[in-house]
Amino acid sequence: MSTIDRAKLHKDIDELADDQLPEVEAAVLLAKYKKTHPGSAWFRAAYEAFAPVREAIAATGISSEEIDKAIDDAIDEVRRESNS
Question: Which DSSP category does 38 fall into?
Fold first, then answer.
């Protein structure tokens, strides 16, 4: 495994556009979670099961914000239908 140059990594992050930061944050949170929950079999299984979904979404170029909005819209629609 290669040594990570933290200073370069910080510089690379600083050069990202603001709209790219949520992806970096998600990756950092995932890495931190994996470190604190290494034995979580259910999490590992769920993460692996959704790999094709993550890859398909990444291939479309859709942003995290667009995904969040689509999910929120679907939840809102289900709630409206169940309140009818």
Answer: T
